Amino acid sequence: MRCGVSEVHVQRMAEKPLLDRPQVKKAVQALQAFLKNKASGEALFLDEAQHVSLLFTLWKIPKEAQTIRIPLPHGQRSDTEEICLFTRDEPNMTSDQTQRFYKKLLQERGVKSISEIIPYKVLKTEYKPYEAKRRLLGNFDLFISDDRIRRLLPTHLGKHFYKSKKEPLCVNLQSKHLARDIERVIQGTSLKVTNKGCCCMARVAHSGMTADEVTENIEAAVQTVVTKLRMKGPVIKLIHIKSQTSVALPIYTSDLGHLSVLESKQAQTPKDKESASTKQTKKNKTEDKKQADTTAEGKRKEKKGKKNKAAAEEEEEEIPQLVAIETPIKKPKLEKPSKKKKLEKAPKPAAVKKGTKAQSKLIKKTDSKVKRKVPKVK
């Protein structure tokens, strides 16, 4: 169902153009007039071209982040911008040899927009310090990388490349149409839709372009964004055009049909809730009735069982017979020896024993004295 809803919405957007071309052209002309007046007041910045961007405001915050590549009919970068290319390390070649190899390859394919080539080994060694990374970030306006090393770059570039939205764009350097692919990446743009807010911006043109070229780029960008957004139903609420120093000029505002759809959904939801609640109450009532019936039947069965038991007991009752009671004969108690007598023991003749021992010792001593050998007299 989701795919069907999104396809229907895309078909409607294709049938009815989202933007009014004359209105967009008026906004572009007003923006260019503002930039010219500002440049005339500041003579130092006459030669610098300012970026022209599209600001999209969505009805809802997206659930998932998304990056949309937008091809443009007219190049949105000036010829003075510096572009850097990161390449992989070729086997059995030094960093200088790989640099010369890729320069020769680009010249043969007719690519002239890239100003510097940096192999991966040079990026790891020479641009390892924090200051070198910041210098590299400020020296170039756009970074392109070989798609074979794109997963290795984030650890060596650092977070500042991604915060300033200058992360490298991937290109297949082995393709047969290398010049065309690089020009599409350089002259195209990309829109980053985050799940942290409902606003997103994409660079579309520069102040040195004509009004017709800017309007054509705007129409192409809006069409691709509407078709590639992963959201169902009406998506875009507002579209503005602005430069780096100007106020945002609106070129599209959606009607309130989206709000009517939301209100109809909200009106349907309480009815559904009421119907669900009525169903639950009915179910509860039926369950209560069943429980009451079961309890009543159980009570009736218990009463019937008690009555039957009482009747059986009355039938079984008989007249008790008189029986002579024999008195038990008391047996004479035997005298038990008292505990005190048991505990009394004969005293130990310790003194006698000691005396006897002493007497025996004395007798032995005397015997030894008496039994002395008398020398024989010859």
TrEMBL record:
Keywords, sorted A to Z: Acetylation, Coiled coil, Isopeptide bond, Nucleus, Phosphoprotein, Ubl conjugation
Function: Regulates cellular senescence through inhibition of PTEN translation. Acts as a pro-apoptotic regulator in response to DNA damage.
Main localization, broad class: nucleus
Region (Disordered): 264-378
InterPro entries: eL8/uL1-like (IPR050257), Ribosomal_uL1-like (IPR023674), Ribosomal_uL1/biogenesis (IPR028364), Ribosomal_uL1_3-a/b-sand (IPR016095)
Name of the protein this chain belongs to: Ribosomal L1 domain-containing protein 1
Domain of life: Eukaryota
Basic and acidic residues biased stretches: 284-300, 328-337
Pfam family name, one: Ribosomal_L1
Subcellular location: Nucleus, Nucleolus
Recorded GO CC terms: nucleolus
Gene: RSL1D1
Lineage of source species: Eukaryota, Metazoa, Chordata, Craniata, Vertebrata
Similarity section: Belongs to the universal ribosomal protein uL1 family. Highly divergent.
One annotated GO molecular function: RNA binding
